[in-house]
Write a structure and sequence with these properties.
3-stranded antiparallel β-sheet, Arc Repressor Mutant, subunit A, 5 helices, single chain
């Protein structure tokens, strides 16, 4: 008994779906990778979450040490990374530093994964 196989025309060139929006450029990918590296740490994610959940999306470094269970220098290091990545701004009031979430800073990361 002979079995007939269906033959698919592979010359049609439709194996890949066309792009529906512009992909990241190499420079954009490099910048976004740096930004995402700043988020790729549990302590930094917790710090961002705490600042975002604070009144006015702002918190004093003195209020961030105990919740994450790290030393003040380590917390300050993580906050510096988040500030350099553009997620937080820093202002000095007396002896304390206050950190505020930059409006829309997290949007640019999420926009990458949202279809247009």
């Amino acid at each position: 008994m002979t079995t007939m196989l269906d033959v698919t025309d592979v010359s049609a060139g439709t194996c890949c779906a066309p792009l529906v929006r512009e992909p990241l450029s190499p420079a954009e990918a490099e910048q976004l990778a740096t930004t995402m590296k700043a988020l790729a740490d549990p302590a930094r994610l917790r710090l961002l979450s705490i600042v975002a959940a604070s009144e006015g999306s702002e918190a004093c470094v003195c209020d961030l040490i105990e919740p994450v269970g790290l030393s003040q220098p380590t917390v300050s290091h993580h906050l510096k990374i988040l500030t350099n990545a553009g997620f937080l701004t820093r202002s000095k009031r007396g002896t304390w530093a206050y950190f505020q979430l930059v409006p829309g800073a997290l949007d640019r990361v999420s926009q990458l994964f949202v279809g247009s």
